[in-house]
Amino acid sequence: MKNMDTFQIEDKYHASFANKTKISIEKGQGVYVYDEWGKKYLDFTAGWGVTSIGHAHPVIIEALLNQSKKIIQNPNSGASYSPARAKLLLLMHEILPENLPRVFFSNSGAEANDAAIKIARKVTGKLNIISTLKSFHGRTISTVSATGQENHRNKFNPLIENHIFVPYNNIQSVKEVIEKDVAAVIVEPIQGEGGINVPDQDYLERLSFLCQENDVLLIVDEIQTGFCRTGPLFMSGQKKVKVDILTMAKGIAGGFPFGAFAITEEINDKIEKGDHGGTYCGNPLGCAVAYSVIKYILDYNIQENVEKTGKFAIRELKEIMAEHSHLIKDVRGKGLLIAVEFYDENTASTFASKCLENGLILNVIHGNIIRIFPAINISKEEIFEGLKIFRNSLLSIL
Ligand SMILES: Cc1ncc(COP(=O)(O)O)c(C=O)c1O
User: Fold this and answer.
1) Second label for 81, Cα 20 to 30 Å away, from 62, 150, 158, 352?
2) pTM surpassing 0.85?
3) Are residues 236 and 107 in the same domain?
4) Which of 137, 168, 246 to mutate to test the pocket of ligand 1 (most atoms within 8 A of CB)?
5) How far apart are the two ends of the chain, measured CA to CA in Å?
């Protein structure tokens, strides 16, 4: 241990799952983070869409402090009542679609999806789950089984059976398989990890209609898109979309490991005591933090900020694309969930390294796509600052 720095310790003792970037972040403030030696970076990743209201936000610190002074974990966990949980449930009830009054909390997104799939099978008595190609639903064995990307799936066979994959944004392909003993369709309103794939505006609505026609549940995975990431609190909140199970995580608690799923009263009527649970599910500390984050999002009209800054960022990035059309193939996204797709992986990787050197942290997916998803309370000036580094870094690698 002695004489080893953070890089050496992690490289020696951390299980080697991640392809790490060589930065060691010690602290953060707002949209900025600082490495161990004090170098400042602008964070365009928000910890993968998680630190939604920025690093070290006072409302989160206050919630953590106040609640931990009271109680962190209830006696008998979720089998006793908690005022912190009740307070969050009331707030969730205000923001969720009306037909989803029942909520259960989880520790992560994968756990919420896992439960959603489990419950869908149980309450319908049917077997198959329709999922979309290029989707991402988590890294547990059941959510890997529901994920439509071979690179996440093919190393872990045998997976959970009875998942049927259809192309994203393609209603006809769902029609062709929906009668095959299908319990549910699971779908992201915008595919995040799959490359920020934005479907037609009426995709969810048509999917919802098809599910209702065939007595199939619709599970909408808003783990990445939820809590104003793309503008509205939920993309599936549109009137004509009837969601049966809505899964959430990431931005819900601004960095505290937390998730949730919401279900209809009809589903709730069909579940039995003991069907689901978990030691930390709905622990008071997580509930207090989630409450503080959601309240902040509502009180400060973060939706408007996302719409404004998102439009600005996409417009600027499209300009950059026009200037470098030989390098950048596409700019797409909604709100503050944006992809810049390069033609080739080498350029994207050299570019991301250059940005890092210049103080901007980016997330590269699939080798050639830069995913931009900063804190949703980022200002236009901070976006501008990041895009200036983006522009200059691009010029410097030409
Ligand atoms: C759409 C979607 N679903 C599920 C997950 C898994 O969430 P978690 O990493 O919290 O388990 C992710 C994570 O990236 C996601 O983007």
Assistant:
1) 62
2) yes
3) yes
4) 137
5) 42
Q: Whose CA is nearest to atom 16 of ligand 1?
A: 224
Q: How many distinct structural domains can be found in the chain?
A: 2
- Measuring CA to CA, which residue among 129, 70, 107, 377 is closest to residue 256? 107
pLDDT in tens, the chain (398 residues): 679 999 999 999 999 999 999 999 999 999 999 999 999 999 999 999 999 999 999 999 999 999 999 999 999 999 999 999 999 999 999 999 999 999 999 999 999 999 999 999 999 999 999 999 999 999 999 999 999 999 999 899 999 999 999 999 999 999 999 998 999 999 999 999 999 999 999 999 999 999 999 999 999 999 999 999 999 999 998 889 999 999 999 999 999 999 999 999 999 999 999 999 999 999 999 999 999 999 999 999 999 999 999 999 999 999 999 999 999 999 999 999 999 999 999 999 999 999 999 999 999 999 999 999 999 999 999 999 999 999 999 999 98
Q: Is the dihedral of CA 264, 265, 267, 271 positive or negative?
A: positive
Among 117, 136, 365, say which to mutate for ligand 1: greatest number of ligand atoms within 8 Å of CB: 136
Q: Quick check: 97 and 246 in contact, CB under 8 A?
A: yes
Whether 46 and 25 map to the same domain: the answer is yes
